Structure formats: structure tokens, C-alpha cells
Amino acid sequence: MLTKKLKIGIVCPYSWDTPGGVQAHIRDLAEFLIASGHTVSVLSPATDEDALPEYVISAGKPIAIPYNGAVARVLFGPIAFARVRQWITQGDFDLLHLHEPAIPSLSLLACWAAEGPLVGTFHAAAKRQKIIFAIGPILEPAIEKLNARIAVSEAARSTLTEHLETDAVVIPNGIYAKKYAKGTPQSKWQGNTIGFIGRFEEPRKGLAVLLEALPIIARFAPDVRVYVAGPGDSEEIKKSIDPQLLQRFEFLGRISEEEKADFMASVAIYVAPNTGGESFGIILAEALAGGATVVASDIPAFDSLLGGGEFGALFESENATELAKVIIDLLRDGQKRKDLALAGKEHAQNFDWEVVAQQIFSIYEMSIVGSEGVGLAKDHRSWNRLLTRDGDDK
Would you kindly state where each structural domain of the chain is located, as residue ranges? Predict the structure, then answer.
């Protein structure tokens, strides 16, 4: 770890009180840094300012815009810019860590307003979008100010390279692997059970693919049950489920982190049928750490995280028939499920915060060095060599 204790400002682009992978990553990183003795302030949009942790400062209420197949709740404009500048001035930070600075958000505003060491993390994995070309001339000077650029996956790095013709070192999202490993199997979720966690109303989360696959699965596993956790209107979803299959479903609503660990330790299979728009897949890493046997669509981010099928089973994205075949095969073969789960659990240790934070701290340290860090930031291979070099990175 860094020997010097730092004052670190982190900017979250999306509403703090809306569940999402970026918010979860920033929350865990901030709390890990604080536990390590650093001073951290997070600036974020927020709807409910009274419910924020002590280390989070609200920049105002967000607005909803369509982005990357979902609805992003962000904050932008002159008033937000003034609040960003005030936060930076009052914070007197040693370094700023900006998440998603390539979209109209607080992070882009901070990139414009700030001087000094700047690190940007890019999460999105998206197809080439016209909006990027429209605002490209505005983005490029801001992105060039970054001393270092991080992408959470190869998919996110490819998106950055394609859209803005710049590069980044790949450092994955972090999880508390040990916390998920402590889950206790619950009899209510055990048996021939399939688990799903996510904003199930969003089409890209792929619940519709699982619904389409279920009649085939039920034909070969008559006692199969599906547990769906996460925010959303379950009554609307139930209308699309065959009444004969509805009794096999249970919608749990939002569950706590402790319940999530128990959930992953209990279900026979955890399925992630997402259709796209994912850059990493924190929930997959958490499922692996919790000992779940994972089945996921073969979108690039999931394929990479699961080692091409070594640490979890893959199926052709949006192919409900193939999803059914993969699940049936695993439900029939308990030893195969166990072997896959054990391999996945070991692999998940690579995403533990103890490992990921070490890599991020190395980036912080090199960024603070100054001009040398700027040169290195332009070549992700140089960053990778430094991150994996022999010797003490602390």
C-alpha cells in the first residue's frame, strides 16, 4: 500500500441511491481506503441526501437519461459545475479519482475543473455511439488531462479505445471475496433452484431469456424453482409468466449483502442471462466468491470474467434453448456443478479488494509522481509492466 496517507477525492457519476455496479465499486473502494487510513470524500448526485454515508457529499438531485441500454441518473450543467469546483477547492485533495469521465456527468465536470493528479476509471462497454462523435471534441481535451486511465475489463478498454482512441490499464472491479465465502446455505433456497439478482425490469438483464427457457427446464427438472432478487415491479413481470409456471417463481425484492452471501451459497445455479451493456459483472464475481455454480451469457465481459467457461458455464447470448440445455446438464450432474463452483471460488480471489486496491494504489502513486506518470498513462502496456513488476509496489 502507499506509505503516505492521502486525501483522495472520488467522483461518482450516477445517483448514489440507485443500485448499480459503479456505485457499489466506488462505495467499496472508498470504505477500503478509509479503513486503510486515507481521508476520502466522494461527490455524487443523490435523491435522498439524508441517507448518505458520512464520506459522501451530494452535488444535487440527478436527472434520468437513457444510456447504454438503461436509464442513467446523472447530474450536469452550470450549477453542478459550481458545486464540483467548490468541493475540489474545499477538499484540497492529493489526488482525484474520476469514474466514467467520458459521459456528461460530475466526473467530466471535475475533469474540466481540476488540476493536479487525476485518475479516470472507465466502466462502460458499449457499441459505437453517435453521441460520442458529437461531443468528442469536448471530451478529448478533458480525457488528455488524466494522468492515468483505468478500464475495469478488456471490454471497457476496447470501448475506450474505439470511442476516444486512447488506452487504459485493466484493473477489475473489486469485491470482498471473504465476506461472500462466509454465506450460510439456507434450506429455503436449496434443491433444484436457480437464482437471479438484478434490476429485472431492464431488458438487458435478460430475465426474459430465463423465462423463455423455463418451460424446457421444467420438462426435465419438474421440481425446479426460480428465485429472483432485486428492485422492480414483480407484478408486471408475473403477467408475462405462464400461469402453470408461476408457482415456480418467487420474487424476493432487494436483499441485504448478508442475505446475498447466503443466497449464493444456497442455490444450485446462479444465472446471469444479460444480453449486453455489461463491462465486467460484479454480481458474477460475488456469485463465484459465494460458491455458486454460475451460468452466464457469452457476452464479452462475462466470457472474459469466466475464463471462456473455465470458471462458469457459458451459453449463447439470447438463446433460451441453449440456456435451458446448459442448466439441465448441470442440474443432472452434481459433481460437475461442484467442480465448476470450486474452480470459480478460487478464481474469485483475484477480485478481492486486497488484490485490486494494491493495483489501484500503484496507479495513484505513479500519478502523483507527476510527469513520469503522464507519459506512462499513454501506454497501457507500460502500466501493466509496472503493476506486475517484481519488487515492492507499496
Answer: 7-174+352-387, 177-350
User: How confident is the model over 312-348, as pLDDT tens digits?
Assistant: 999 999 999 999 999 999 999 999 999 999 999 999 9
User: Residue 256: how many CB atoms within 10 A of its CB?
Assistant: 9
Q: Which residues contact 99 (CB under 8 A, 6 or more apart)?
A: 10, 11, 12, 13, 22, 25, 26, 107, 120, 121, 123
For the stretch 373-388, pLDDT in tens is: 443 333 444 434 434 4
70-74 and 63-67: which strand pairing?
A: antiparallel
Q: What is the mean pLDDT of the chain?
A: 88
SS3 assignment, position 146: coil
User: How many Cα atoms are found within 13 Å in the side-chain-facing hemisphere of 55?
Assistant: 21
Alpha carbons 355 and 177: distance in angstroms, whole number: 10
Do 177-350 and 7-174+352-387 have the same topology in CATH?
A: yes
Compute the average pLDDT of residues 168-179: 94
C-alpha cell belonging to residue 94: 492529493
Q: What is the CATH number of domain 7-174+352-387?
A: 3.40.50.2000
CA-wise closest residue to 162 among 142, 138, 136? 136
Question: Is 177-350 a domain of CATH 3.40.50.2000?
Answer: yes
Chain segment 277-311, per-residue pLDDT in tens: 888 889 999 999 999 999 999 999 999 999 999 99
Q: How far apart are CA 97 and CA 325, in angstroms?
A: 44
pLDDT of residue 3: 60
The Cα angle at residue 135 between residues 13 and 113, in degrees rounded to 5: 50
Give alpha helix (H) positions in the chain: 21-35, 78-91, 106-113, 130-144, 154-164, 177-181, 207-220, 234-238, 243-246, 257-266, 282-289, 300-305, 320-332, 334-347, 353-369, 371-377, 380-387
The three cell numbers locating residue 216: 424446457
